[in-house]
Amino acid sequence: MKLDIKYIDGGICAAKGFKASGMYCGIKKPANDDPSIKHKNDICLYTSDVLCNAAAVYTQNKVKGAPILVTKANLEKSGNKAMAVIANSKNANTCNADGVEKADRMCELVANELNLPKEQVIVASTGVIGQILPIEPIEKAVPVLAKALDYGKNEEAATAIMTTDTVKKEYAVEFTLGGKTCHIGGMAKGSGMIHPNMATTLNFITSDCVISAELLQKALSDIVKITYNCLSIDGDTSTNDMVVLMSNGLAQNDEIKEHTEEFEIFKSALFEVMGELTKMLAKDGEGATKLLACCCYGATDVDKAITVAKSVICSNLFKCAMFGKDANWGRILCAIGYADAEFDINKVGVEIGSEFGIIKVCENGAGVDFSEDEAAEILKSDEITINVYLNEGDRCATAWGCDLTYDYVKINGDYRT
Amino acid sequence: MKLDIKYIDGGICAAKGFKASGMYCGIKKPANDDPSIKHKNDICLYTSDVLCNAAAVYTQNKVKGAPILVTKANLEKSGNKAMAVIANSKNANTCNADGVEKADRMCELVANELNLPKEQVIVASTGVIGQILPIEPIEKAVPVLAKALDYGKNEEAATAIMTTDTVKKEYAVEFTLGGKTCHIGGMAKGSGMIHPNMATTLNFITSDCVISAELLQKALSDIVKITYNCLSIDGDTSTNDMVVLMSNGLAQNDEIKEHTEEFEIFKSALFEVMGELTKMLAKDGEGATKLLACCCYGATDVDKAITVAKSVICSNLFKCAMFGKDANWGRILCAIGYADAEFDINKVGVEIGSEFGIIKVCENGAGVDFSEDEAAEILKSDEITINVYLNEGDRCATAWGCDLTYDYVKINGDYRT
């Protein structure tokens, strides 16, 4: 199978027929001197020129944001078809008595403006939990957003979903299916309360491939497992996590069927987009100075490799050591040891690496001599990889995260003000 | 059942017939300007005048410190009898190729000096993982420690097991069984890598009751579940966790039997000691400024209550909010929501309290109006309690932890130097 998947600009507007817009509507008064607000936009809209097949995965948190409940109901009612997505930041519309009513109203506003059935609108919110969502600014914003919709405005949308994110997260690829040029693009928001479980923080993916809603869902679920679900910023699974993938068929490829080379290519392209967004989310984790990846090799199955890799990535002590550029590999082995998976700890090997080199620190479950100077040099990088070798099988997986820093504490010590 | 359990001084020497000693032997060179080293002592010994029945629980981490392996083997060989305990800090003797040999040698040194069978000696180590333990300083120290053993030297031992602890942790109680005065006392070390799983960080409990090793083990396992196992400082389950409980029978009470009032009294006294040590560990968590307790009420069973309470206590976001005195209750509900337990989130209520007052912040899974000024006043306290009401049953449990602060990051950014 020849894979020719290349990066392109355009984010959610990279796929044919997707328009976007974003703006500031005043959901929360901006404190101009508040360093946690990196971008002013707080609401966005994007639409497809034609009806899309849609797939979504949602948070497994028992506390579910009202937009999650409304989106799920809408997609059930529409038979997994969607035309438009509206999303806001600065308020999660979660744990509010009137939350569902307000989320539903947001869909209604978009439906009225664009002349769609309400159930073809997807809604998402992110921000503070448990504060009443002001609907008036949104009522005023929707007509403006609708009028401003355009093919090149992906960035306006991508910045409107930012909370404590310091950079926008967009990625898109181009690839070929049966001679037809196809696209998948996406945007995501971080940066805290990120420990996806069967879903993740707000992530929006668009595609122009011809593919059924069933296969879209299958592809999304497969790829979520090895991308977003292998990400942890702080161990906290959000109440509003959602990934939504829409495909409008404008690439005019022959419909993608299961068990075909085309489906594998589609999934590879989706992995590329979601994998890159995952890394962007990790790197821009709240307060982060380093992107951390843990690659677990030699497992008897992928789930075991994921469990071990995530256990390392989630360890506060390991995260602090990386912030401090301290090759304290005992903490890595400790986290491997309490991972909820069966394997022989006495076979485990560990390496620490970056673009500045790689060193073995542990073999057969015990430490090996290494140069602290070399380790210090390697740890100067802002992208550190930990390789874990279980030496029991041939499966592997990677998990991503970031270091734990003073700024994480600062950002989260007073998030609401 | 009348409970008359009162606090007394004396720590591990409160029970009749227990002597202790502690000293600095030079396991790690002290950096006089290193603020993380709060106390110089690095090794201690304690013994009973007569042979004890012993019970222990150990870490569930697959990576097990060599002292864990040696202690376990010794207690198996001795039929759960023990006379002496040797423990060091500054080096965990874990993940070292010669670890078991060195831990065994520590037992041998004590056995030779005190003229005991080696298998009656318990060994424990705490500190950095993966650094070779220097045995020479310990060889020189054991005769000195043996000579210095005395009934009143519990504090010398309690300070010798400190790592990043800022205060020693000791607690003891006196109670009566059948007219005989009995005692249980203990000491513990914190302060990081604390997320006990079926065991906990180093904790040493002594008693003078007449009780079989089997019943000691039963009591210990029961009480560990609702004390140390309900504690989390940073989510990291250590490789060297161990609680050991020894009882020498010198109180001369009639032997405690199962299913009796006496066994309940013994367990209550043990709960008092282990519960207080748990709170001390939480309050002195690395970098902590606040002791946090989460009491979960109205659960259908205790395990569920523990799961929910621990989920809140472990949330980094909640811990940061408490550090920042921010009544961001959405994070509490979020953590309740991702707890791995079945209950109806729409019935959940939450209160935040301290000695300065208590406020309801959430009812039926949704926020309620509260005064931010009142909340700010409550959160000024250095001991915060979160009450969670599941409103489904009549069982409850409490979990303990601490806030996440700049100092936690600082301490763990460069622990090894």
Give a description of the structure.
- The structure is a homodimer of 417-residue chains.
- Chain A has 417 residues and is of the alpha+beta class.
- Chain A contains 11 helices and 15 strands.
- The first copy, chain A, has helices at residues 66-78, 99-114, 136-148, 154-160, 213-226, 261-283, 302-314, 316-323, 329-337, 372-378, 406-413, and strands spanning 6-8, 18-23, 43-58, 81-88, 121-125, 169-177, 180-188, 203-207, 242-247, 291-299, 349-354, 357-363, 366-367, 383-389, 395-402.
- In chain A, the strands form 2 sheets. In chain A, strands 1, 2, 3, 4, 5, 6, 7, 8 and 9 form a 9-stranded mixed sheet that branches.
- In chain A, helix 1 (66-78) crosses helix 2 and helix 2 packs parallel to helix 3.
- The longest helix of chain A has 23 residues, at 261-283.
- Chain A is globular, with a radius of gyration of 22 Å.
- The interface between A and B is large, with 63 and 63 residues.
Spell out the blueprint of helices and strands.
Two copies of one chain form a homodimer.
Chain A: E1 6-8, E2 18-23, E3 43-58, H1 66-78, E4 81-88, H2 99-114, E5 121-125, H3 136-148, H4 154-160, E6 169-177, E7 180-188, E8 203-207, H5 213-226, E9 242-247, H6 261-283, E10 291-299, H7 302-314, H8 316-323, H9 329-337, E11 349-354, E12 357-363, E13 366-367, H10 372-378, E14 383-389, E15 395-402, H11 406-413
Parallel strand pairs in A: 4-5, 8-9, 10-14
Antiparallel strand pairs in A: 1-6, 2-3, 3-4, 3-9, 6-7, 7-8, 10-15, 11-12, 11-14, 12-13
